[in-house]
Specification:
This protein is mostly helical. It has seven helices and two strands. The radius of gyration is 19 Å and the shape is globular.
Length: 172
């Protein structure tokens, strides 16, 4: 599709969901729009050269960041270009269906905490969606030890206060 960014893929997401036997409900479409935003920010030619897959010699590629073996195992006949956004969506959705099933939990799995909402590490420059749902998050720069320890301390204090707990000391 023309344009740039994630929103331009909405009609292709609907079409790919239907091709995989789904109704393309608003929540199903939303889940895959989140996958696209998280994985490639709408760039069908994206290649991740730094994740574990790349380190093992098979980088994640395309709109929904499949590795070639996963793409090839799930691609549709006549849709064999991992860098074609629609082809990658077809394969990615088919993979989800085979691996996690067709229920709401499958969509929650692919669009949920596998991204950074559940924490993680990043070593490459990127735009990231943080504080999902306006939730407080700590972002700790590991390359700056003094600032990292300061934020770890503040995070710990916040969690202790929130949980009404305390850090054990030698006197307890």
């Amino acid at each position: 599709p023309g344009g740039s960014g994630v929103a331009r893929w909405r009609s292709d997401v609907k079409k790919a969901l239907k091709a995989n036997g789904f109704k393309a409900t608003a929540s199903q479409v939303s889940a895959w729009m989140k996958v696209i935003a998280r994985e490639s920010n709408g760039d069908p030619k994206a290649v991740n050269h730094t994740d574990i897959n790349a380190q093992e010699g098979h980088p994640s590629k395309g709109l929904v960041q499949t590795i070639e073996s996963t793409f090839n195992s799930n691609k549709f006949r006549g849709h064999g270009n991992i860098f074609n956004g629609y082809d990658d969506l077809l394969a990615g959705i088919h993979y989800m269906k085979r691996r996690y099933g067709s229920g709401a939990s499958a969509f929650a799995r692919v669009s949920g905490p596998e991204g950074y909402a559940n924490g993680g590490f990043s070593s490459t420059a990127k735009l990231a969606n943080i504080s999902e749902g306006n939730s407080l998050e700590s972002i700790i720069p590991l390359s700056k030890p003094s600032r990292a320890w300061e934020l770890i301390g503040k995070s710990s204090a916040y969690l202790n206060k929130k949980n009404n707990s305390h850090t054990p000391s030698a006197n307890t």
